[in-house]
Design a protein that fits this description.
There is one protein chain. This protein is 76% helix and 0% strand. It is mostly helical and 171 residues long. Helix 1 crosses helix 3, helix 2 runs antiparallel to helix 3 and helix 2 crosses helix 6.
Amino acid sequence: MGRWDIDFYLTASLLTIVALLQSTWLAQVTLWGAHPDLMVLLIIGWTAVHNVNDGLVWALIGGLLVDILSGGPLGGTVLALVVVALLAGQPLRQEASITLPSLLISTFVAVLAYHLALLAVLSWGGMAVDWKYSILQIAMPSAVLNTVLVPFVHRPLLWLERKVRGEAFTL
């Protein structure tokens, strides 16, 4: 079994577990209208520690898994997560090392874009969307919550990425 096979099985397993958690347990967790979006955080974190191309692959696979499990429009989460990977990767990849402020800013912007993309997909699909309520009561609180949570996802992904590459990891 080659390195690619191991990476694929590790990726598929991790994304499947996260999609299951996101669609079941985390769907029930709400804090002031905000939901922790573990798949979004995973895409942002992996894009930050690895690269935009792999972040896009994770976005496609993870988005499809979430779409299948959620019952929403098929492809909606895929589209939103692709936007997340593209946004998260741009400012982060321009720096030699990822700083906490750039990670936090990228996360806030990417989570807002994620919710706007999902709202657009719902709207284009003919569903009535209360844009003001959705942005102010759901997207903004979720952006704040997920920005607070991203360092807790980033660190384990940094460890995983270095483990996959065979590098030593120091705290």
